């Protein structure tokens, strides 16, 4: 390795690591609300720490491109202001040779970012989702507090109090019975979670069955009163979550996503609209991962081109252009996720900013190599 390669890489990676750690800390702080919500479910300290660690692989693909932009721009801005870049070029080293070590590191970062996006972040996202669902199943009172989370169609849930997910009072649950199209009513004066058992007091259950054809219009009512009752918390939690939760595309590794695409292609033709929509979402997610993969390379080239200054007084206009292009790239990324059902539209938003960044950077470097800024 050339000495100037080592010098450039050390200075580039030093700022890159510092920036990456800073963005990781900032983005984890931004997720404190989600972490606090998870801790409020009654998770032990070890599980909470594991939940926080699982956030890191999901954050890295966003922090790496921004860090590569900052580090490359600071490096070449410093080289220009201290005339080190001029000294290197005066020694007979071409601009392309000076950029080579940084470009190689950017390519390696892009490969690593693709692996993290497709393998590590998908696994961590799936495990965090599973951790939340496991806690909710074992805390049925929290599910009852949020009927929307419980995913009960046609259900009404009302409670007068709830204490840390361990106790509730004056519980009312009205649920539609899908088999006979009647309502079932469950009343309980108090409920308390003791370990893995849910204890109920002063319980009333009212259910009904349709009348026979001979006595049309008269339902049979069954009223059951219990002073005390107990059931496994997991059983009630599983009932409340009987529809389960769907595994999204960003939960799947690349090979599993490919398998899902092949499975959708082999489905019957009865639901062509849904199949096409799901296929579009799968393919859009592949493009999303490719977009995140090439982001470090695209942002590094952008930082290099606008970090180099050949004038004595470097203009601040370059910083404004870089911030604007980076902001457009980030906004386009989040907009593209909203159009994931359309491969063409999402691909346009995912990839077009990188194409624009490359064109602008190439134009700027071409001017610099010709002695113009």
Verbal overview:
With 373 residues, the chain is of the alpha+beta class. It has 2 domains: 3-136 and 265-369, no CATH class; 152-240, no CATH class. It is built from 12 helices and 6 strands. Strands 1, 2, 3, 4, 5 and 6 form a 6-stranded antiparallel beta sheet that branches. Helix 5 crosses helix 10 (272-307), helix 9 (254-265) runs antiparallel to helix 10 and helix 10 (272-307) packs antiparallel against helix 11 (317-338). The longest helix is centred in the first third of the chain and has 43 residues, at 95-137. The chain is elongated, with a radius of gyration of 29 Å. The relative contact order is 0.10.
Instruction: Please tell me what the overall shape is.
Output: elongated
Q: How many separate domains?
A: 2
How far is the first residue's CA from the last residue's CA? Answer: 30 Å
> What is the CA-based Rg, rounded?
29 Å
Class based on secondary structure composition and strand pairing: alpha+beta
- Residue stretches low in confidence (pLDDT < 50, at least 5 long) are 147-151
Largest sheet: 6 strands, antiparallel
Order of helices and strands: HHHHHHHEEEEEEHHHHH
User: β content, as a range?
Assistant: 15-25%
How many E strands?
6
Number of helices: 12
Helix percent reads: 55-70%
Mean pLDDT: 82
